[in-house]
Design a protein that fits this description.
The chain is α/β, with parallel strands linked by helices. The chain contains 21 helices and 23 strands. Helix 6 links the parallel strand 1 and strand 2. It is flat. This is F-box domain-containing protein.
């Protein structure tokens, strides 16, 4: 946010006398239109700058600077405690004196409090003081603990836990996270929040609590995280009390809490609203949890399923019966998920695991890309046989992947994607992938290949792949390459591409799915492609083209095949500082001969007129329009209704009026 500052005298809120904001609006004489906003709207803007989520945004500084802009803003800010109540980020006050801390707290008045940040020796005393005085007002408590085990016990158990046994009428979110050391396993002797937390929605505290004593506030939870020291029976008992639960995370790496427990109870209630299930633990623990948690009947609400095993050496070789039960449990959830979200697009990932305490993904799937259209899939190699035996991926048409260190091990899985027509590949293992595709005849219906990380060293291998597919009667139609890498292809490479049936060596901008708002797109971000014959749809059928050309677009001559292929264009919309270069190409190479409407669009700083001294777009456009008349291909309408015509000179307007058959559409009022 950009602010203008005035020289003002600091007035502490304790001495600020109440003022009529409406009268201030009348008294302030300023050309700034923001002064006309009602105080309620200004407050909403100020509150927007206090929202959580961007750690790089110093929300307290923004509030301070905003309060110093003018008298109206200052009175509005200092008179609303809700702004200051959200700014109790502990890290902001690590080196601050007591006077400033108390000033901010006093400005919050009786507003709800958001307390976030890191708990350390420097911040702990003030935090406990605030909680002791204002616990009834705390709405969000999100704390990371940076202390050692000794100070954890001293501060956390000695001072914080007693506070957690008080009524929490305003509390909606509580996260207490441990960054160093082990999570304590001591049980809470009393009912958390004294059983009173009617607004609580998200809960993550590393302590053991009795579900029966806390049943009232458990019933309102939407998000819950439980840690390793909870036994399977305790977890199930807790889940019976959370009918509204949407997000569940279970971190159970303690083997002693799962390996010796066999627990079944058919009366476990279904989690009908579950959207997110994340499990981390030892194999036996995961097996039991997945067996005991019933599948929701309204599974389409489930958006993320993540199961990861520990990486302890002692768990690296579980008994065969555990492996079999694990696979059955996982497949039950995976199959239910995919049946409810038949994916058309899958992003397949292979991850490396580092360190003895790392978790290893067994399965991680997440719905995205417009609802049911696609999902991200991360899995353990042990699940591949079961997945291949199923028909879960028969609907997948687009596969995005980054081959890892062992692509050969994934070959059986690739076979399951037999309906894929579009393949997008990243990474340096593309040679091995092409070898697998040839060896096992993978992706028989493949028509589109996207190579997002072009390495010229491997380009000959890709050419071999394309040639073999064409020879076998399964040619590819479209090859997408990174636009900034296309120039690295040699003439020999392009010559081989020319000879591949179904492909020509025309590097063109992707037009099959134009963005709705092309003005917001960077030209370099639009993929370059080698497409099927230039006289085939969709290019020859396109009648409207919208182009944004920045100051320094890549070589437009390389795009001539595109412009020539777009022979049916009737309506051309252009913006950007490279517009003049495009008009010159249209003049020199007789492009877009069926063009009937030419529309110029102003694009912020790229607005150009014929007096700018940088580009002369209007004169170049006039030259083009006159040339089209003389060659028998006149343009009937020049649309300047969205163009900054204030700089179009009278001379240019006179020349436009003299062009035969041309109508010029100016903005309203011109």
């Amino acid at each position: 946010m950009s602010l203008a500052f005035a020289s003002l005298t600091f007035l502490p809120s304790s001495t600020q006398s109440p003022m009529d904001l409406t009268s201030l609006l009348k008294d302030e004489e300023s050309p700034c239109t923001v002064q006309s906003l009602p105080p309620e709207v200004l407050l909403q803007i100020f509150l927007k700058n206090t929202e959580l989520g961007d750690s790089s945004h110093h929300r307290l500084n923004t509030a301070r600077y905003t309060s110093q802009v003018c008298r109206l803003w200052r009175v509005n800010l200092l008179g609303n405690g809700s702004v200051w109540g959200r700014l109790l980020e502990l890290d902001y006050y690590r080196r601050s004196g007591d006077e400033w801390k108390n000033e901010v707290l006093s400005r919050s008045r009786d507003a709800l409090l958001w307390i976030t940040g890191s708990l350390s020796r420097l911040t702990a005393p003030w935090l406990y003081s605030v909680l002791d005085k204002k616990w009834q007002n705390v709405q969000i408590l999100d704390i990371q603990v940076l202390t050692t085990n000794v100070t954890w016990r001293l501060y956390y158990q000695g001072k914080l836990w007693p506070l957690l046994c008080r009524d929490a009428p305003s509390l909606e979110t509580i996260y207490l996270r441990r960054v160093m050391g082990q999570v304590p396993s001591e049980p809470c002797s009393a009912a958390l929040f004294n059983g009173v937390a009617p607004r609580l929605r998200d809960f993550e505290i590393p302590l053991i609590f009795h579900p029966i004593e806390n049943r009232l506030w458990l019933s309102t939870l939407h998000g819950l995280t439980l840690f390793a020291h909870h036994t399977i029976p305790t977890i199930i008992s807790v889940l019976r009390s959370t009918p509204l639960l949407r997000r569940l995370k279970l971190h159970g790496n303690m083997k002693e809490n799962s390996s010796r427990v066999e627990y079944t109870d058919p009366s476990i209630a279904q989690l009908r609203h579950l959207e997110w299930l994340e499990l981390i633990g030892c194999p036996a623990y995961l097996m039991l949890v997945l067996e005991l948690i019933p599948l929701p009947t309204r599974r389409p609400t489930l958006r993320k399923l993540s199961v990861a095993t520990c990486h302890h050496l002692s768990c690296s070789d579980p008994p065969p019966q555990v492996i079999e039960r694990m696979q059955w449990s996982f497949m039950k959830w995976i199959q239910a998920y995919v049946e409810d979200f038949p994916p058309k697009c899958i992003s397949l990932e292979e991850r490396m695991v580092h360190g003895p305490d790392s978790s290893l993904d067994i399965i991680s799937i997440e719905s995205h890309w417009n609802g049911t259209e696609g999902l991200t899939l991360t899995m353990s190699l042990a699940l591949i046989p079961a997945l291949v035996a199923s028909s879960l991926f028969s609907t997948v048409q687009e596969l995005r992947m980054q081959p890892g260190s062992s692509p050969t091990l994934l070959a059986p899985l690739y076979k399951a994607f037999h309906s894929v027509t579009e393949l997008s590949v990243d990474g340096i293992r593309i040679k091995e992938l092409f070898d697998l595709v040839d060896q096992f005849s993978l992706f028989p219906h493949l028509r589109i290949l996207r190579w997002n990380q072009l390495m010229v060293t491997y380009f000959p291998r890709m050419l071999d792949f394309l040639e073999r597919r064409a020879a076998a009667g399964s040619p590819l139609s479209v090859l997408y390459l990174p636009p900034k890498e296309v120039h690295r292809l040699s003439d020999l490479h392009k010559s081989r591409l020319d000879r591949i049936p179904g492909l020509v060596s025309d590097f063109i901008v992707k037009l099959t799915t134009l963005p709705r708002n092309l003005w917001e797109e960077s030209f370099d971000d639009i993929s370059c492609a080698i497409t099927c014959r230039s006289d085939s749809p969709p290019f020859s059928a396109i009648e409207e083209l919208r182009v944004f050309l920045p100051r320094d677009p890549f070589d437009l001559l390389a795009l001539l095949p595109l412009y020539k292929a777009l022979r049916s264009i009737k309506h051309l919309v252009v913006t950007g500082l490279g517009t003049g270069a495009l008009f010159n190409h249209m003049h020199d190479f007789s492009l877009f001969l069926h063009l009937d409407v030419l529309e110029l669009y102003s694009h912020g700083a790229d607005t150009i007129d014929d007096r700018s001294g940088e580009e002369y777009i209007i004169p170049i456009a006039i030259r083009l329009l006159e040339h089209r008349v003389s060659t028998g291909y006149p343009i009937s309408l020049l649309d300047l209704s969205s163009f900054d015509v204030a700089g179009v000179s009278d001379v240019s307007k006179e020349r436009l009026e003299k062009i035969a058959g041309l109508s010029v559409k100016y903005p309203e009022g011109e």
